[in-house]
Amino acid sequence: MKVKSTNYKIRRCLLYVVLLLLTAAMLVPFAWMLSASLKLDKDVFIFPIRWIPQHPRWQNYLDIWTKIPLLTFVTNTMKITLIVTTLQLLTSSFAAYAFAKLKFRYKDTLFMAYIATIAVPWQVYMVPQFMMMRNFGLNDSHLAIIFLQAFSAFGVFMMRQFYQGIPDELCEAARIDGMSEYQIYAKIMLPLSKPALSTLTIFTFVNTWNDFLGPLIYLKTEAKKTLQLGLKMFISQYSSEYGLIMAASVLSLIPVLIVFLSLQKHFVEGVAATGVKG
Amino acid sequence: MAKTITESQKQEKITALQKEREAFSLKLRDAVGTRKRDSLIAKIEKIDEQIKKERTGERFTRQEKRNLIAYSFIAPNFIGFALFTLGPIIFAFVLAFMKWDGNSPMEFAGLKNFIDMFSNDRFRASFVNTIVYCLATVPLTLVSALGLAIVLNQKVKGKNFFRTVGFFPYVASLVAVAAVWNMLFSPMKSGPVNMLLYNLGVHAKSLPKWSADPNWVMFTIVLFSVWKNMGYYMVIYLAGLQGINGELYEAAGLDGCNAWQKFRYITWPQLQPTTFFVTIILTINCFKVYDIVYMLAGGSNGIVSSQAMVLVYHIYEEAFRNWNLGYASAVAMVLFLMVLVITLVQFRGEKKYAN
């Protein structure tokens, strides 16, 4: 018996060692980013790595705002992300309600249109999409980015899956009580679908915030660029200002970090649910 | 309700409808027990609704009203979706057979775009690179994600913390993370990773130049992809692991199975649907890769060399640098076909695993 317990202890220790090593592998780039963001450019590559700088250079975090129009980039990204997330949540939960709970003509045809496009990656139709937007006079505008992100089939699909799990009897009862479909949606379905809405929020938020290829194709004027685009531009222009680049990178991660940490339960559940169901 | 129909006209219509209804009900009598019955009943019900509509003078039947309400729910999303997704997709299929630079009128080109493609070195390079990237990334990510999930599925303290840490690279912005990665894997001798290798005894001259070296660039990209995305698949695997019945392990323990045997004969077979799904999603995502390559191998002007370029990059450069829109769409069709094949495999697999 005693042999087994020492064996067990060794196994536990090994397990924790493996875990710590893995955590280090995941975190080291972030730690290095934070540490380099507080250093002078010439100190960044000193070996052995000094993880905590002797004289933290907070100045980097101030300089970055004047070196590039960071505030403009942040405002642009905020604006786009907020509008896209709101539109996505409203329109897809609205449409999903009809697909899940109402009977109407061409329902299956319309839904097939959504399903079929999920299998088509955006990269396949980004070229014609750009040309159409240009025809509408939308190139180099935030509206283009908003339109191309806000009406995804994924949102409708996900919300519909969730609504289908809510018993029909609930809607029937409300109908008998004389509620209109709009009231049922607003007063019964929406409050019940908070978990699904949170999942959709965090996915849309992170995707829009981090999107790079879309803004790269559409936005040409500097004053209209998003944070990711501006950051990349800065990195290309001042490739040796390591401290500043890292400071800007840290700043660009903060909003996502906040959203992720506060909603991560839904994030993990969302991934797991879509993953298991397929 | 500004319809001005006289009473007699109204009556006429109603009698016409009633006649139609009678004709159908006669047919229905003959068709008892056949398949036609249901459709006949539906038709009769429809006529009943219409008669009711005529009698009461309302503009819509109840079913029409229901349809309209449903459409009002769908419309806000569907209009945007049709305009900005469905339309471009249809357009993409047409454009693949056209010659167009975006300004002059379109010309029909037949299969020329596809023929050009196979004689284009950059296309061939991008195609091969995409496949190589895929073949390297899919198994590596799969194994790391599964390993991570199994470790995290043990009874360990701070499980949630570790899960969060593992997942964070996936949500972190690519530009920022790639910037650090480029510095850590700097091709110079002073780059932190190279410095580490040097101190471990690698000769200064044989230190890899990572993304600046044609032979190492793909390796660097694969390594980065695995690191960035494995957290996502780990979460899927964790859900899969939690779905395995614990009694199976208890039984195996009683039979004297060791850890490896438990994995080999319980975990792995039980996780097969999850592994299948993860492989599908991973493969499709690998086909779509673009920004990772652009960030790591793109240099300051964003031009990717033929050792690292992938299909989506080829589409991008042909469309938005050379304005060969027709040709770019033809390449996009190749990408679409690749994804389609995988999706069809997925449908088959889903049927198999659903039983």
TrEMBL record, chain A:
Cellular localization per UniProt: Cell membrane
Topological category with respect to the lipid bilayer: Multi-pass membrane protein
Organism superkingdom: Bacteria
Xref: PROSITE patterns: ABC_TM1
One term of GO molecular function: ATP binding
An annotated GO cellular component: plasma membrane
Keyword vocabulary terms for this entry: ATP-binding, Cell membrane, Membrane, Nucleotide-binding, Transmembrane, Transmembrane helix, Transport
Transmembrane segments: 12-34, 80-99, 111-131, 143-163, 184-206, 242-263
InterPro entries reported for this sequence: MetI-like (IPR000515), MetI-like_sf (IPR035906)
Predominant subcellular localization, coarse grouping: membrane
GO biological process: transmembrane transport
Ranges of residues in domain ABC transmembrane type-1: 74-263
One of the Pfam families matching this protein, by short name: BPD_transp_1
Keyword hit for Transport: yes
Family note: Belongs to the binding-protein-dependent transport system permease family.
Protein name per the record: Sugar ABC transporter ATP-binding protein
Upper lineage: Bacteria, Bacillati, Bacillota, Clostridia, Lachnospirales
